[in-house]
Design brief:
The structure holds two protein chains of two kinds. By secondary structure, chain A is of the alpha+beta class. Helix content of chain A is about 25%, strand content about 30%. The chains are: A alpha+beta, B mainly alpha. At the A-B interface, α3 and α5 of A face α9, α10 and α14 of B.
Chain lengths: ~375, ~600
């Protein structure tokens, strides 16, 4: 423990620009420690439009944090501000408790992966990966060793002499990742690195990045608009909307207990049911939907009277074809067979849409449009939005 | 029922068949160029070898020190001009790239606008600026740098300055298109990898834009080789360039054969340079690197790997390169920005100030050229519009330019359609032929056409002159319209066809509206090309048929009066108006390129 702390202190002293390359210590075996990043009240406007509207976020050392949001939500702006490509209009960004607004991007010592790969087309794979080391002043021997190691980690050794134009998209992106991590940076920024790849490749590189993160220990700031990607990879997710952070939490928390309607509908599929609060006892609430269907739900909401929005995930709804007093009768509008799962769109008597996902089983016939089903859910399966 | 179906299908398929491969549209342009361009050049070669032995005239060219020295001097001047253009052009291109919004629009316009103003007029504006009564002398005297106005004109320096200023836009545009094509995140990737702005420039941007720099350098070099107007007006006796000898010899009928040999030497040198350049850069550099998709041949993947050095260069890189690069990264961020701003700003001044000075002088009250003008009046405009000689020349030029534009757009438009839409083999070679008039020195072209025009009684006719001008207008039209055609979404045409439009209806309702702006721009540039053309006209017109540039040329050589400033101002207004009209088209084009 003392060892780690000493190392951390040493790293802090040499912060920004001079990653210890020739120090002799093999940084690969000793897991590198990422930097903490503190984003405090950050503002960035483009001619009246606030791309970042008073954003604050604390990122722990070594954390894998994802900025998730639709396009135009400000996630890339925030990443560019951390990278130093854009100037802050307000607030501050601290890396390891030191403000960085006067440090130009090339002296922040971060690694970065771009959506378009941004590999230097005039350099081979080796030269691309060696570039950050040469800029940092590593000698030829160290450079060669570290490049070889990194190419080995990324399983690129056989492509070392190729030019980017001779490689596939997935290989190019792995080279881009190799270039970003070759200095063992304490912070790696990733700007939608997988969005240009097809789905299968994307999933395999997701796992690769995840493993890499555990191996290197760097802090990773990852930007994506793909909620599935965010859920799979992150320690924590920060959901952005219109230049503001709406919720910061672990993937499980974000999925199960979203803080707003926006988060609920942006992450995963959801049913948002309007209901009236009948009674509140502890963390359990009794609610009534417009048709008079009464159900209970878990809640951390401070509301105790009036209307509320309840989230029920489609896969938490159980259906039955036999009437049941504690179930909500719904009419099937469409049923789609997706393989292991059935996706049913149904409607309540008052015309509210209800999406249901259930596993396929041999003893159940596929519901047909017009059929009546009885839907029910448990109290712990729904969530009253605060 | 079935017979009807067959009847209906019959003509439809044959028409669509024809439209599917409209290679025949290339024929008119090919015939035109064969008759008025290739045949005369072929004749030029023939006559140059018509002496007692084929080489007798060439031996004389290389034996007489007058010509040999001039050839060496021409190479020297062209090379220096190309280097100067490169040195000043790159920061200017970077400046355009780094600015945005209205600033970028202004800077880009300041570079592009002079490009379309006649070389004669731009050279004249330098004569005014550097003249004894010009603003530079006045300023230097008032600041006490000179005791009395100095002779700044008619020396090597003024030739280099004038030619560099005239050719700079060519270089800037060539480099800019190369920079704009790069992925902007490459620079950020460089920075994120620890490279400062200068290191990113040196290791990433410069290597990637090397082809654009090469293209610009060679275009400037080749164009400078055949330069005639600027060195004649700005140079002294010691600055004779090769093209000037050709026009001087053309006045003596006795030099038949030798004259053609001079032209052939100039042409061959030009072609050799272009051939070598084309070998390395691809011949696309001539028309701005706008590659045509050749259906028969997959486009070459160029490997920039040739810049990666061997072991020796690795040592140099280790010992000097990388440490220097890291040192440069320590420099404040603003160093590079300021260098670019200062050099780029200087270039913008060099390009615009002479023209602005001339425009101000056109309103002068004085009876001779002096700056600042003692007062303002419209007397020189009155003189221009009331002088029948000027007005005749002006009308002649308008009529000839309009005719020439019609020729060029008709032939070039068909050829562009033929080359883009057909599946003909060797598109690159055909494109090269269509665009090649751009690289042939105008003096050589003029001389070669001279004998053809005498033989066919075309000399001194408006139609003849318009056709000659169309040789140079054709490449402009082909390049602009081919780009415009490539921008048309083929799926729109397919959509129209699927929904029942016949091929001709598809062309009329979908294709034509889409390329109409490109066609208008092409027509304007073809018109402008003819309106500004001087060198061919010098060879081909008669005393009865004077064009505006010819009239200007006569006056520039004998008396620098303010009427010339009036003509220059009108030309600037014409170009500004034309560009303003063509701007949406050009903007669309550059967007499509980026």
């Amino acid at each position: 423990m003392a060892d780690i702390l000493a190392m951390r202190a040493a790293r802090r002293d040499g912060a920004f620009g001079a990653p210890e390359t020739g120090s002799g210590s093999d940084t690969r075996s000793a897991t590198a420690i990422g930097s903490s990043i503190t984003i405090r009240d950050v503002v960035k406007t483009y001619g009246g439009f606030a791309a970042a509207d008073h954003i604050s976020l604390d990122i722990e050392p070594g954390e894998f944090i994802t900025l998730l949001g639709p396009s135009g939500s400000g996630k890339t702006t925030l990443l560019n501000l951390v990278a130093g490509f854009q100037k802050l209009d307000g607030g501050e960004i601290l890396v390891d408790d030191k403000p960085v607004h006067n440090v130009p991007p090339h002296r922040r010592g971060f690694g970065m992966v771009f959506q378009s790969y941004a590999l230097f087309p005039n350099m081979t794979v080796t030269q691309n990966v060696a570039f950050p080391l040469r800029m940092a002043g590593a000698d030829r021997e160290t450079t060669e060793r570290r490049v070889a190691e990194t190419l080995d980690i990324m399983r690129l050794s056989e492509h070392a002499a190729k030019l980017p134009s001779q490689m596939s998209g997935g290989q190019q992106q792995r080279v881009a990742i190799a270039r970003a991590i070759v200095r063992r940076p304490k912070v790696v920024l990733m700007d939608e690195p997988l969005s240009a790849l097809d789905r299968r490749l994307r999933e395999s590189i997701q796992i690769e990045i995840r493993d890499l993160h555990q191996r290197l220990g760097s802090t990773i700031l990852f930007v994506t608009h793909d909620q599935g990607e965010a859920l799979t990879m992150s320690d924590r997710i920060a959901v952005l909307d219109a230049g503001k952070i709406v919720q910061v939490a672990t993937p499980v928390e974000i999925y199960r207990h979203p803080s707003t309607k926006f988060v609920a509908s942006f992450v995963g599929e959801s049913n948002l049911i309007d209901a009236e609060i009948v009674q509140k006892r502890g963390t359990t609430m009794t609610l009534k939907n417009p048709e008079g269907y009464v159900f209970s739900a878990e809640s951390r909401s401070s509301l105790d009277v009036g209307r509320a929005t309840v989230l029920v995930r489609p896969e938490r709804i159980s259906i039955s074809s036999t009437p049941n007093a504690s179930a909500l009768p719904v009419t099937v509008r469409s049923a789609i067979f997706l393989g292991e799962i059935l996706r049913i769109e149904a409607e309540t008597a008052s015309g509210e849409r209800l999406l249901i996902r259930c596993t396929d089983s041999a003893d159940r016939a596929l519901p047909a449009p017009g059929d009546t089903l009885y839907a029910s859910w448990r109290a712990e399966d729904c969530w009253v939005l605060p | 029922m079935s017979t009807i179906a067959i009847h209906m299908a019959g003509p439809t398929t044959s028409l669509s068949e024809r439209l599917k491969d409209p290679a025949w549209l290339l024929l008119p342009a090919a015939a035109f160029l064969a008759f008025i361009y290739l045949l005369p050049l072929f004749d030029l070669f023939r006559i140059s070898m018509s002496g007692s032995s084929w080489s007798v005239h060439f031996e004389r060219v290389f034996a007489v020190s007058l010509y040999w020295d001039s050839l060496v001097r021409t190479m020297e001047i062209s090379f220096t001009v190309a280097l100067l253009c490169l040195f000043f052009g790159y920061p200017t291109a970077l400046l355009i790239h780094k600015t945005s919004g209205w600033r970028q629009a202004i800077i880009a316009t300041a570079v592009v606008l002079p490009y379309f103003i006649a070389i004669l007029i731009r050279t004249y504006s330098w004569m005014v600026l550097l003249g004894k009564n010009g603003p530079i002398n006045k300023l230097a005297v008032s600041l006490g740098i000179f005791d009395q106005p100095a002779q700044l004109l008619f020396n090597r320096g003024s030739v280099l300055l004038g030619m560099t200023a005239v050719l700079l836009p060519l270089m800037v545009l060539s480099i800019y298109s190369s920079i704009a094509r790069q992925d902007p995140s490459l620079v950020r990737a460089g920075q994120a990898s620890g490279a400062g702005p200068l290191a990113v420039f040196w290791r990433v941007l410069l290597p990637l834009t090397l082809p654009g720099m090469g293209a610009g350098f060679l275009l400037v070099f080749v164009t400078a080789l055949g330069f005639f107007i600027t060195p004649t007006l700005l140079g002294g006796p010691g600055d004779q360039m090769f093209a000037m000898h050709i026009t001087q010899q053309a006045d003596f009928a006795t030099s038949e054969g030798f004259l053609q040999a001079l032209a052939v030497v100039l042409l061959v040198i030009t072609l050799v340079v272009v051939a070598i350049a084309g070998r390395f850069l691809g011949f696309e550099f001539i028309w701005g690197g706008n590659k045509l998709s050749d259906s028969t041949k997959p486009s070459k993947q160029r490997h920039p790997g040739r810049w990666t050095g061997g072991a020796f260069s690795a040592k140099i890189a280790d010992g000097i390169g990388w440490p220097l690069m890291r040192l440069l990264s320590r420099m404040p961020l603003s160093t590079g920005t300021w260098t670019v701003r200062m050099l780029g700003g200087f270039v913008l001044m060099v390009l615009t100030v002479p023209i602005v000075v001339v425009m101000i002088l056109s309103f002068s009250k004085a009876s001779f050229l002096t700056f600042p003008p003692p007062g303002f009046s419209l007397r020189w405009y009155e003189k221009f519009f009331s002088d029948t000689e000027w007005m005749t020349a002006f009308t002649n030029s308008l009529v000839i330019a309009a005719m020439s534009a019609v020729f060029a757009v008709t032939l070039g438009g068909m050829a562009a359609l033929g080359i883009v839409r057909s599946s003909i083999k060797g598109k690159s070679a055909i494109m090269l032929l269509l665009v090649s008039p751009v690289i042939v020195p105008p003096v050589v072209l003029g001389l070669s056409l001279y004998s053809l025009f005498l033989r066919t009684d075309l000399a001194g006719t408006m139609g003849g002159l318009a056709a000659a001008h169309a040789i140079g207008g054709l490449p402009l039209v082909v390049v602009i319209m081919a780009a415009s055609l490539q921008g048309v979404d083929r799926r729109l045409e397919q959509a129209a066809a699927v929904h029942g439009a016949s091929p001709l209806t598809v062309f009329r309702t979908v294709t034509l509206p889409a390329i109409a702006p490109g066609m208008a721009a092409a027509a304007f540039f073809a018109f402008l090309h003819s309106f500004d053309e001087l060198v061919l006209s010098l060879f081909l017109s008669s005393a009865q048929l004077r064009t505006l540039p010819l009239r200007l040329w006569a006056d520039v050589n004998y008396q620098l009066n303010p009427v010339l400033a009036v003509v220059s101002t009108l030309e600037v207004l014409l170009v500004v108006g034309g560009i303003a009209l063509a701007r949406p088209v050009l903007a669309g084009r550059s967007k499509a390129l980026a």
